[in-house]
Amino acid sequence: MAARGPGMVTARQVAESLGVAVSTVGRALADDPRISPRTRLAVREAAERLGYVENLPAQMMRGGSSRMIGLMLPDIRNSFYATIADALSTCCDAAGYQLVVSIADSAEAEARHVRQLASARAAGIVIVPTPAPQAETCAMLARIPHVQLLRRVRELSPAWFGIDDMECLRAGTAHLIARGHRRIAYIGGSGDYSTGADRLAGFRRAFTEAGLDLAGAIEHLGPPADPRFGAEAAAALLAAADPPSAIITGAVQLTGAVLQAIAGRPLSEGREPALVGFGDEPSFSWWRGELTAIAMPIQELAQACGGWLIARLETGAAIEAHASIASAQLVEYRRAS
Amino acid sequence: MAARGPGMVTARQVAESLGVAVSTVGRALADDPRISPRTRLAVREAAERLGYVENLPAQMMRGGSSRMIGLMLPDIRNSFYATIADALSTCCDAAGYQLVVSIADSAEAEARHVRQLASARAAGIVIVPTPAPQAETCAMLARIPHVQLLRRVRELSPAWFGIDDMECLRAGTAHLIARGHRRIAYIGGSGDYSTGADRLAGFRRAFTEAGLDLAGAIEHLGPPADPRFGAEAAAALLAAADPPSAIITGAVQLTGAVLQAIAGRPLSEGREPALVGFGDEPSFSWWRGELTAIAMPIQELAQACGGWLIARLETGAAIEAHASIASAQLVEYRRAS
DNA sequence: ATGAAAGCGCTAACAG
DNA sequence: CTGTTAGCGCTTTCAT
């Protein structure tokens, strides 16, 4: 049931409509110099007229590439990942590849989707892996040129493109410490993810680097993609007997959730906690108070990642070890007065 | 260059490793009842051990379906479309299909991507068409079961799933009129898009239904996906000699741009324009003033759309005319006091 | 400059 | 229960 209507047109049909051989059609369409200009034109015209569309599966059986690059993401609604998909799509498009976006947020779904990409013989894969991919997933990926993005798992490719997670949170936290904050709460992802562990480490490092006691560091760890967790953590902090003077988040989703939670309570002038949010979104510009965003060059990161993979695919070079680390920048939003 | 490493394992290799025929392997893997349990087990075990992954292109040449559904979107960073991709992905996943997301925001890119989906023999396509698809695009889609989503173009499938665009803006505008506003500005997409034209018509209809003169209706029309346009329109309105008392937007992107533009100016108590924004986002909850959101059940819409298409694919039924219209709901956000 | 034929990996019809 | 064979649409020798 691949395609219906009058059915797909084959090269053979084009050939018959002209009384030539299939091989002639194939050559004409491939701009083979051995075909006479007259024949080539006739073939192209007939193909167009009949609505001929090349059959990729058949071409692949002859050793052709699928020119498809798979992108495995945990969540497309996350602006972070949407930006990546967008940048990679542009990147692939320019190089004549097609990006196939797969959304899978569990190791099982991940395995299913990787299998589908493998069975479709995707030329390459860019993957933001789940924290603990199945053995089968790793086995399949071992046979497909692939790159890890953002998250990193030991079992997969040694090629990785990501951001300096530790530095992101170290810088954000240091920013707060420099402004005099001593009781700082961190709401972030648990250590299951490589990124979660690194970010937490960065938060702690800022304290030790400043010679501060970690007693002032309050940590709320949970699922980084769950807004409910962020909202509850923020609510708990605000309602506490001795609330922190500042809050810093360690995941895009959590930042939004925390803002939402704070916005839900009445504005208590002068008592609002200082905020540092992971990620940078247009909507931060209308936050009611001051907010420092940890902005990352994800677009450039994705471009670099896609370009790198495509270059290996084109040259046929092996996927050697590679690590590209992008660093973040703090952006300050303050309300117009 | 389909896949490297030790190269992909074929059914023949599995067969040879066991000294059986290829067809036996094929049957065992397909759970054919005619194969003895012992052989079947041996085959499955060998396949697993060797890392065999079925070759979709080869299966397709035998008439098998690609079980791939293409989704053509103009912009994945738009939360609207991201939600659709997410919902459809879930939908497809549950039915054993794979969603292939393609991002194309021009008629040319659209044609390229549709061609790629066609050549890959996608089983079906869900498309948010560009305003004027190329003739070639239409010709190719005529041979592939497809459904239009949100936007509607006459040249394509008679099957369409969308929202009642006119009613959305009529209701939003009527809401403002009911609250006493008489000078209302509309910032929306130009009439090139089916949705743009309908939304503008809804805006105007609210005026005539209320027996009001259209002189109070200010219209700024432009590219609906361009935040710059939204920002400039908002800035112009606010700076005008006689600014409108209310602003209503006609596209998700424009709503954000307008909020951002207003947030950039100092808060002038009591003089802020009333706002009705197209779309509904979590970030609206921290808008500094009052805001009414036009919330649409896009998730349900996408689910319905995907379910409908998959049902036709499974049964082999033709894609008959169909129109499913979802209606919106107004959601009010007001700052906590 | 073009045609004929082989074969990619798989499934299904036909033979044992 | 299992093996043999044909053929899906295409590219690529090898022959004209």
TrEMBL record, chains A, B:
InterPro entries cross-referenced by the UniProt entry: HTH_LacI, LacI/GalR-like_sensor, Lambda_DNA-bd_dom_sf, Peripla_BP_I
Could you name the domain of life of the organism this protein comes from?
Answer: Bacteria
Q: Which residues form a coiled coil?
A: none
**Name used for this protein in its record:** LacI family DNA-binding transcriptional regulator
- A Pfam family found in this protein is Peripla_BP_3
- Alphabetized GO MF terms: DNA binding
Matches recorded under PROSITE patterns: HTH_LACI_2 (PS50932)
Q: Which UniProt keywords apply?
A: DNA-binding, Repressor, Transcription, Transcription regulation
Question: Where do the HTH lacI-type domain residues begin and end?
Answer: 9-63
Known Gene3D superfamilies for this protein?
3.40.50.2300, lambda repressor-like DNA-binding domains (1.10.260.40)
